[in-house]
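General statements about sequence and structure are easier to judge against a single worked case. For one protein, we set the task of working out the structure tokens from the amino acid sequence alone. This step matters because it turns folding into a mapping between discrete strings. The amino acid sequence and the backbone structure tokens for this protein are reproduced below.
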Amino acid sequence: MKLKVLTAVAATALLSAFTIASTSEKDLVGSWKIDESHISTTVKKVIDKAIEANPGSEDQIDAQKDMIVAMVQGIRLNINADHTYASVSPQGSKSGKWALTNSVRTLEFTKEDGTVRKDSVLESSATRLKLINRDLADTILYVHP
């Protein structure tokens, strides 16, 4: 009897370890900021992307690192229940529509100009949102401010 119970518990634990956490739309709604633990890697990715787009201006971009850090720390992602969003930074606000696609494993942002960015959802809860930003090729953890 004990072996049957132990086997059932072990099988349940093993199967749940490989279950993808589901993403609920209600968990996404709210204001999000980049978690402090992800600021430095996000800043590095932003700088690398800027240097790639502007070869030869590495020194000028590196000189602006403090400003870039402040910009990344000030970013807010406001996700609304009506499937609109606003990405707010010290440089201004950009808005558009959002949708969960690919069996809720992808968070798709459609910008006002019609361009689409698809982020992979790694984790989603009422307090944490972990995405792979495909534009920056970076994993970013968002939390509520």
About this structure: Residues 23-143 form a domain with the Lipocalin fold (CATH 2.40.128.280). Helices lie at 2-17, 25-28, 39-53, 58-63, 65-74. The longest strand covers residues 92-101.
